[in-house]
Every structure is written in C-alpha cells, then in structure tokens.
Amino acid sequence: MRFGIVGAGAIGCLFGARLRLAGYDVTLVHRDPSIVQAIQKNGVNLQEIDGTLTKVRLPIRKGPAKLLGAEVLIVAVKAYDTRALAATYRGRIPSETTVLSLQNGLGNVETIQSMFKNEVLAASTTEGAFSLGPGYVVHTGRGLTLIGDTRRSNSDTCSRVKIAFDRAGLKAKTSSNIRGVLWTKAIVNAAINPLSSLTRLTNGALAKNAEIQEIARSAVDEGISVSHAARIRLVGDPRKLWRRILLSTRANKSSMLQDIERGKMTEIRQLNGAILSHGRMTRVKTPVNEILTKLVLGLEESSKTT
Ligand code: KPL
After folding, report:
1. Ligand 1: residues within 6 Å at CB?
2. How many structural domains are present in the chain?
3. pLDDT digit string (tens) for 188-209?
4. Nearest to 158 by CA among 182, 143, 176
5. Catalytic residues
6. Are residues 125 and 208 in the same domain?
7. Banded model confidence at residue 66, pLDDT cuts 50, 70, 90
8. What digits encode the pLDDT tens for the residues 87-110?
9. N or C terminus: which one in the chain shows less Cβ crowding within 10 Å?
10. What are the start-end ranges of the E strands in the chain?
11. What atom in ligand 1 is closest to the CA of residue 127?
12. Measured in angstroms, how far is the CA atom of residue 256 from the centroid of ligand 1?
C-alpha cells in the first residue's frame, strides 16, 4: 500500500516513520521549506517510548505536491488548515486515491468531503507524539487509532489501512460509528488541551490535579450534553477516557500546549469552539467551553510569534 502524508508534524512523522519501517511506501509532504530540507538531510528521527532513537529515511516533498501513486493520502495537518489544504489539493489528487483525515477536532471530514469526490475516511488517534524539532518526533505514549467512513459502510481500503497501521505497531481498529468516535475524542481533547495550554502542565500532571479535574469534568459534561442534543452516539465514556488518555500519554505535552510554546495558532476553534457552536445550534449552554475558548484565544494572541 502506498501512502502520501500531508503534514510532517509530530503525528505525520510518527505515522510516516512507523509505516516506512514496516516496509510501506510513504511520501511526506510539507509546505514549510525549512522542515522539508531538515527531513531531506537528516530523515525522520523517531525516539521511541523506551528511548531508542531510529533515523528513518523517507522521501519528502514541498507541498502542494501531486501525489500520483498514493493509494491513501493521510491528512495530518492542523484542523485550522484543513479548508486551505483541501482547496489547494483539489484537482491534484487522482479520483481513486482515498483521503484519510488523521486530525483532532470537529468539522475536518465534512470540509474534505465537501471538496472531494474521493472516498474520504476519518481516523482518530490517542497515540501521544511530541515534536522536538523539524523531523524529530518523540513517541510519548501508545494509543489506539480508530478508522471509519462517516457516510457509508467501511470499504476494503479502510480494513487495509487498519492492517497497515497494526503492522507498523500503531494499534488500530475500524469503527462503524467513526462520527461518534470523533466527537468522543473532541470532547476529551476539549477537556485536556486548553487546560494544559493554560497551566503548561504535562498530561500526567493534569490527571493528578484536583482543581483541574473539576474544570475538566464540567467541560466534558457540557460536551456530552451537546452531543446528545446533536444526536451523536458517543463511543465510551469521555469521563473515563479523559483519565485513561492522560495516564497513557503522561509524559506528553498536549498538541495545543506544543502550539502555544511555538507561538502558533491552536485548534481551540475546532475543539471547545466547535462544542460551543454546536451548543448554540442545539440550545445547550456551554459556559465552561466558552470561557476556555476565550482564554486560549487570548493566550494565542499573547504568545504569537508571527
Ligand atoms: O490528542 C492529544 C493531543 O495532545 O492533541 C492527546 C491524546 C491528548 C495527547 O496529548
């Protein structure tokens, strides 16, 4: 199976390096020339959970690039870049290529579906990954990746992607309710990522803090109420998942905290912001998610470098 991966951040590099090590044909694509050059020169440096460091050589191209041979194009860019990316890649991807969104947040799949006639799959992962610099990724915690189609029953490609991830040591399952999976993960992320950004605590430290637990609980409860009003069937209990994910990725700094530390935009609009807007549509009050959204927007402003 041939993969193209757009976005050479922590998750893109982790999946790219692992798939390559498992013998798959993988091409990375990234729009930042300095990151492309660093990976061309040094490969992807993958630091595993046990500390082992592996240099993985794989082709990388500066995006936007035509990925003619890719059977599956994994979208691993930040959620706020999905629309621009989809607009750029329209017409550059053969109709037989499956597009797989491997992103945090709500709305990514719908955006991609609205712009492509291709098969579009969604995946949600709880693998913990931390970027130490261009092409240098630390795998901080093992997780599970769920994959599925939001519109129809899962295809053979969906099962083959699952097998590829499994062979790459990234435990995966197909799901017949991937929309519920995406919502469940978004509710959990909305109660982790802004709290870690505001406190600068690692995932493990968040789990231990009683005051944080209280705020997280309220944020999760609001998310659950909105999902019920929006008729989403959640997968598992987000309250339990919150703790489980924090403990399995205890060494990780959430992706939002990593963004804040780099002075970058965050996915707050696609996480708490999305819960807030779905809450407005379904007339469910979400005051905690609203405050977290506003605080992180302020934090983005004060830590912006560009
Ligand atoms: O998805 C994550 C993120 O940081 O965005 C978790 C699983 C919480 C890992 O940190």
Report:
1. 104, 126, 128, 189, 192-193, 203, 245, 249, 252, 254-255
2. 2
3. 999 999 999 999 999 999 999 9
4. 176
5. 185
6. no
7. confident
8. 999 888 999 999 999 999 999 999
9. C
10. 2-6, 25-30, 44-47, 53-56, 60-62, 72-75, 98-102, 120-125, 128-133, 136-141, 145-148, 172-174
11. 7
12. 8
